[in-house]
Amino acid sequence: MDAPLVPDAPPAEALAALDSLMAQGAAFLGSRYAIMGGAMSWVSERNLVAALSNAGAFGVIACGAMEPDRLAQEIVATQALTQKPFGVNLITMHPRLDQLVQTCLDHQVGHIVFAGGIPPGTAIKAAKEGGARVVCFAPALALAKKLVRSGADALVIEGSEAGGHIGPVSLTVLAQEILPHIRNVPVFVAGGIGRGEAILSYLEMGAAGAQLGTRFVCASESIAHANFKRAFIRGAARDALPTIQLDERFPVIPVRALQNAGTRRFLDHQAETIRRFLAGEVEKAAAQLEIEHFWAGALRRAVVDGDVENGSLMAGQSVGLVTREQPAVEIVQELVNQAAHALAARRG
Ligand SMILES: Cc1cc2nc3c(=O)[nH]c(=O)nc-3n(C[C@H](O)[C@H](O)[C@H](O)COP(=O)(O)O)c2cc1C
């Protein structure tokens, strides 16, 4: 018989032992569990963020390209749905990064997550002086150490199994490279995590907690379009692939997503643009821009409009572990119970 989807309540001692493994991460976040809901543009808005925080995890608003006024509205709306702490994820190349930091501070956001590159020292300083805790993504050990020296209060290490924009290294390797050496700030692991057993194993390796994105897309509270959720429920790990780059002269930003007509057309688009460049019909810089513009607005098309053929279906390899729509609290409880059951089994 298949294992039940929501396992029976684990023994109290195992839950207590899990609590102590999560203690540093949970204290840092101010949440019941050291589980972060990774910010996902268009998906991580007030409803999912509040639902995750209310479920004992830690929701994070994805600011994406929002302007400061729009972000302020989203923060206020989230605060109306939860009394629990949540964070805001800011993309470092946003042209109004400083104002976005100030917007978070003006609205008493306790945690600012800087993503999409190394944040400028001024942004880290402003966030900290304003009373927020700063979380940064560390793609390698040297950068992890540099970010801690620059004032990061916690780090996320995200493996290439993750959905969305990815680096080249898997979490299995990043965790070994970074966890043993960064002991002075909490380190959260991300990428490819879909079950509690995996969270437990990274906690045992020294992680303070875990950040999951893909696993939360199909939460009942997530406003992602039904077509987007259906694609996740149908998708297997092998369908969530990184973008293919055709020519090293025209770099593309690697994004892991479910394959669809859009990803296939992107190959044709690159090939045709490169052909026009070689034929002298378009300058190199203009050709590069044409390639980069292909995906503009594509995540919104899929998440909000439900165009799962032409939009971007950003998803991690853990998409294969998403099997149905469930309330956020059920997903969080399932992860915690799986971790605690594994811990109980290990300790006999
Ligand atoms: C649809 C989607 C959109 C995402 N958008 C963002 C984003 O705007 N900013 C960011 O820092 N990470 C983004 N991510 C990454 C998540 O925050 C998280 O780190 C990642 O999903 C963890 O890996 P997993 O998908 O394997 O759980 C996105 C991921 C997905 C699946």
UniProtKB/TrEMBL annotation:
InterPro entries in the cross-refs: Aldolase_TIM (IPR013785), NMO (IPR004136)
Gene3D superfamilies tied to this protein: Aldolase class I
Gene Ontology molecular function: any one: dioxygenase activity
Keywords per UniProt: Dioxygenase, Flavoprotein, FMN, Oxidoreductase
Protein name (record): 2-nitropropane dioxygenase
